[in-house]
Design goal:
By secondary structure, the chain is an alpha+beta fold. It contains ten helices and 37 strands. A hairpin with a 4-residue loop joins strand 12 and strand 13. Helix 2 packs across helix 3 and helix 4 packs parallel to helix 5. The two termini are 48 Å apart. It is an enzyme of class 3 (hydrolase).
């Protein structure tokens, strides 16, 4: 009733969908589901990652009701993806794939538990599903943690304090309980640090927080756990990334929970859905993994950044309200709507004779859920690792229910067929229930299908009214940053790629520039990717060619400060160092430069500007065709500079180095 009521409020609806038909059968085989001899491993849930990085950046800027609809598709039980787990980045001010996420401690004497959007996202997830599990994991760390070194383990007590403060802040300021904490995403682990992290957690009354290590590969963590008895005692879960559905013998020998703690990362079309369907089953069937977590939750970042649209759904247009519920959402529902963390897998082989796989789970109270997938090789390739060839053919599968399942009389049936040849997919449709006759039933399976057969009657395919149609980023866009109590620390649609740009209240200003946007990272972070040596925030439409960017700028660094506005910027994310475009720089020493790259190596023009620090100036960059010109405070400073490449790209603002600087009255046309 509660789900239906909230559906009505949002104009969304839930239903069973249309009926489907079976396929022509060729191969036949029988499979036994029996709990009499005990159960398999405990199921820990299906989840997704927000962050690693800035993957939810544009989501927060959506207007209602669209933002709530997107969140419902992700988190609301028996609605859409109904996720069991949300994993978020602990922002560290560094580039972590598609942008930077702000740290709760930019500096050693600084704590702020309201930066960024992960706190908000966790609360929205909890609001919809109070039982959702929360995971925190750092990709980068603020520079002060390493005291000048690009390494978080030289002062493990400092790093442990920093991470635990994030967990404490989640509880104190947002009433969020973090269930699991990771070490350092896809980078080296340090045994001394992990032990100290456990000690620090316990010292602060956080005994319930479990540790995942090492969010990289199965080795060397599995081998080290077998050698180090003390470390074995403090690591609760071995998390591996992109395991290709396989584990290693040492991981099994540790007797720890094994998770694919990051997986998928694949373009969210039908092939992406096939990838996701296959690994959701086969991570357990082949690799004993009891949780699979997708990178990423929702593709809410500019699509031309790295790994565009590699989310379970797409929401990259807050200016239009357009979003798309992609096929992976409904593939997720096949598992998540009919299981819960704490259920157990049955002890079955799980491989189908004609190719494909099945898993069976029970709550131990008589409920049974079976998930079958028959994804073919070319229709289920993930982005990584390479997929060895296999074949799948139509087949008839007969299941015998034994033990406590023998008395089951009917099973609800949910079905998806990914239509690659026809281009017409049928997703998460409820079919007629299957009658179980004397403990058995048969199913004709075609290729590229997913079936869920379950005793649960709670499944729902919910839908909201069609969102608005897609629109390009506004061709005339202004932001004066005049907001007294901003709901988020960052201005809408700006996508920070190195550094962090935050709303700032300039208390000493006489009035014109009280509310500004300020770059606040003043020391290079402990990096995960190749952050630029300059800071930069992107905005707009990657396809823009002819563009005028105007912005008021304020250099704070007297010695060697500098800022820029730019157009036709062609790179960001992990490739930000190689960004090209047209960059108009002014420096505190009174000079200016025009460069064709962020690094400032390809100089197109230079000269004197008269700009000084601690004063506001207005920069205007105009790019038309193959010619660019620049104005300072409304007067021409340089013109007729020839620009050949790139031919299009985003607008941007930024600074010469990791330095304080302010921006106001941004306008792009």
């Amino acid at each position: 009733a509660a789900v239906l009521w909230s559906c009505l409020l949002l104009g969304c609806s839930c239903g069973s969908g249309s009926l489907g038909v079976g396929a022509a059968a060729i191969a036949t085989a029988t499979y036994v589901l029996d709990d009499a001899g005990g159960l398999g491993r405990q199921f820990d849930g299906i989840g997704a990652v927000s962050g690693g990085g800035a993957t939810s950046r544009l989501l927060v800027n959506y207007q209602e009701p669209y933002r709530s609809q997107i969140l419902d598709y992700l988190f609301k039980p028996n609605f859409g993806a109904s996720l069991h787990i949300l994993k978020v980045e602990i922002g560290g001010d560094g580039q972590s794939t598609d942008g930077t996420e702000p740290s709760h401690m930019h500096y050693e004497n600084d704590e702020n538990y309201f930066r960024g959007y992960e706190w908000w996202l966790m609360k929205e997830a909890k609001k919809r599903n109070p039982n959702i599990k929360m995971i925190g994991l750092p990709w980068t760390f603020p520079g002060w943690i390493g005291k000048g070194e690009n390494w978080p383990y030289d002062y493990p007590d400092v790093t442990a304090y920093y991470v635990v403060s994030w967990i404490l802040g989640a509880k104190q300021y947002h009433d969020l309980d973090i269930d699991y904490i990771g070490i350092w995403n896809e980078r080296a682990f340090n045994s001394k640090y992990i032990k100290l992290l456990r000690y620090t957690l316990d010292k602060h009354g956080l005994q319930q927080v479990r540790i995942i290590a090492s969010d990289r590969l199965w080795e060397p963590i599995s081998f080290v756990l077998l050698l180090d008895f003390e470390l074995h005692g403090v690591v609760d879960v071995i998390g591996a990334h992109y395991p290709g559905t396989k584990t290693v013998p040492n991981a099994i020998l540790t007797k720890k929970k094994l998770w694919a703690s990051e997986d998928y990362s694949t373009f969210n079309d039908e092939v992406g859905a096939g990838c996701w369907a296959r690994i959701l089953n086969q991570n357990y069937v082949n690799g004993n993994m009891t949780s699979t977590i997708a990178w990423n939750l929702v593709a809410s970042y500019y699509e031309e950044l790295p790994f565009g649209r590699c989310g379970l759904m797409t929401a990259q247009e807050p200016w239009s309200g357009h979003y798309k519920v992609e096929a992976p959402i409904w593939i997720t529902a096949h598992t998540t709507q009919f299981t819960q963390p704490g259920w157990s897998y049955l002890q079955v082989d799980g491989h189908l004779k004609g190719g494909g796989s099945f898993v069976a789970l029970t709550d131990g109270l008589g409920n049974l859920t079976i998930i079958i997938e028959t994804m073919t090789h070319n229709h289920s390739r993930c982005i990584r690792p390479p997929l060895p060839h296999f074949s799948v053919t139509p087949q008839r599968a007969t299941f015998y229910l034994k033990g406590s399942f023998y008395m089951i009389e009917t099973l609800q049936v949910w079905h998806s067929r990914l239509g690659f040849e026809s281009g017409n997919s049928s997703l998460f449709q409820q079919l007629h229930p299957v009658k179980v006759w004397r403990g058995s039933f048969s199913l004709d399976l075609n290729v590229d299908e997913v079936y869920t057969l379950t005793t649960l009657r709670t499944g729902q395919k919910c839908g909201c009214p069609e969102p608005p149609p897609p629109q390009p980023f506004p061709s005339n866009y202004k932001d004066d940053f005049n907001i007294r109590n901003p709901p988020f620390s960052e201005a809408p649609n700006f996508a920070d790629q190195t550094g962090v740009f935050e709303y700032f209240v300039n208390a000493s200003d006489p009035g014109d520039h009280v509310f500004t946007l300020r770059q606040v990272v003043v020391q290079r972070p402990i990096t995960w990717a190749s952050d630029a040596d300059q800071t930069i925030s992107l905005i707009g439409n990657f396809k823009w060619v002819n563009v005028t960017v105007t912005c008021d700028i304020y250099i704070e660094n007297a010695r060697d400060g500098g800022v820029f506005v730019a157009g036709r910027v062609n790179n960001g994310g992990i490739y930000v160092r190689r960004a090209q475009g047209v960059f108009f720089w002014v420096f505190a020493d009174g000079t200016y430069r025009v460069t064709a790259d962020l690094a400032g190596e390809e100089v197109l023009m230079k000269g004197l500007s008269g700009v000084r620090h601690n004063a506001w100036h207005t920069l205007t960059l105009n790019i038309q065709g193959t010619s660019a010109s620049g104005q300072l405070n409304g007067y021409p400073l340089w013109e007729n500079v020839t620009v050949s490449k790139p031919s299009n790209g985003w607008a941007a603002i930024g600074t010469r180095s990791f330095e304080f600087a302010q921006f106001d009255n941004f306008h792009v046309e």
